[in-house]
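Lecture 7, part 2: worked example. A protein chain together with calcium ion.
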Amino acid sequence: PPGGAGAVTAAAPVVIVLAAGEGKRMRSATPKVLHRIAGRSLVGHVLEAAAAIEPAHLMVVVGHGRDEVAAHLDEVAPWVDTVVQADQRGTGHAVRLAVEALATAGALSDSPIVVLSGDTPLLTGETVSELLSRHVADDAAATLLSAELDDPGGYGRVVRDGDGWVDRIVEHRDADEATRAIHEINAGMYAFQPADLLPALGRLTTANDQGEEYLTDVIGLMRESGRPVAALRVPDSDEILGVNDRVQLAEAAALMRNRINRRWMLDGVSMLEPASTWIDVDVDLAADVTLLPQTSLLGPTSVASGARIGPGTTLSACEVGAEAEVRHTWAELAVIGAGAAVGPYSYLRPGTRIGDGAKVGAYVEMKNSSLGDGAKVPHLSYVGDAEIGEGTNIGAATIFVNYDGVEKHATVVGRYVRIGSDTMLVAPVTVGDGAYTAAGSVITDDVPPGAMAVGRAPQRTNPGWVARRRADSDSARAAAEALAQSPAPSEEENR
Ligand code: UD1
Ligand code: CA
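Predicted complex, written out as structure tokens:
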């Protein structure tokens, strides 16, 4: 029975997101809607989908963990308003509070009210848009999102009339055998006309198995008033997956991963093993990037064309230049230049900047340091609070001694420097352009450009020591055999 109160338009809708529930089955100290997948909270994903219909007002109903949830929303979506539902007395009660808050704020008009749930991260903006346009096209009092499920257990069932309009929704626990046999379920997402919703909310009762005000009961009440209620079936029921426990959290994360990976592959990114490749929503990848197995790209990471990342690599908030290669690496807030080579087994901490064509090799840790274009730290080093010029080579096992136990100090190494293996650069210290340090040096004083600095005790060799002090050992026997072949040089020659 279509027709009725006033023309429905899609302009300036209001969105209410329900997020007051405890999420008991998560067994978590963190409120359910703040759990994250693909680098964004569950409620953050829902707000992203809601943004597709450009809401004039967004009201989130908070309850359990409300301070934490409100603080999170302040950070990620400061345009959102919140209303507190101190006791969770049902979805109908939650929407009633939100509607009252919106009315008080003068935010209610004839525009539709869209109600979403904060724990359905896979909902897309396209589906929210479609729900709204279908609602407008049908001129309905309410339009709900439904899905056809093989196993509808637990969900509210959509009971339709002979003309295909929705007659009512019956919660699983309140449903009889025949109603439970219905496979079309209520996804818990709706578009409402305020003129129909407000009076119906006022008439909700708690006469049900849970003693709660069910939002779903407004449907039957609208029908009693002779108003039409429509349902839009989502073609992909994954979209309405609600997260109630950690198993569903992992399922949602995997579905989101597949969706994100598919999009990047269609945009020209190669993935050897999409199932072990995790890309956050804020990542940006160019065409012809290759991602090898067990790779995670987190936060606002960007990777330029031709770069190869992985296997076994995690990059968080990093920027990787074109044609760079990053293998078996963990990096956070680091910039890796074009054509640079990093890894295997490198650890780049915040503030690391690797120049174009530079190399960071195995078992190298860097922090708050820059490595010039074409410079190399190939093996087993710690580089902290350092500035290293272009073309410089840092010998194996060099340590930038930046911490005196109280304060951190900086080291500056110039261009085309050769730092000998196993050098300790005790900060604050400067090594000038083109200078050398001898292997094993402890450099405590500045080295001028072009100088060679040797900072170690001269070697002392005591011939025959093993024969005297470790007589009758395998070492002594090996030494005796070798000396019989070619006697050791005299003290004189050795000098
Ligand atoms: C609800 C629907 C059911 C539908 C299912 C889809 C009702 C009565 N039933 O059931 O038909 O199939 O969603 O997932 O609406 N919330 C509050 N305050 C409350 C109660 C709930 O904010 O007082 C929030 C929850 O945090 C959650 C959402 O509303 O985000 C849905 O609540 P939930 O208790 O999960 O509803 P279901 O029993 O799953
Ligand atoms: Ca639920």
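Residues 15 and 58 are 5 Å apart (CA to CA). The pocket of calcium ion (ligand 2) is lined by residues 242, 244 (CB under 6 Å). Keep this in mind for problem set question 3.
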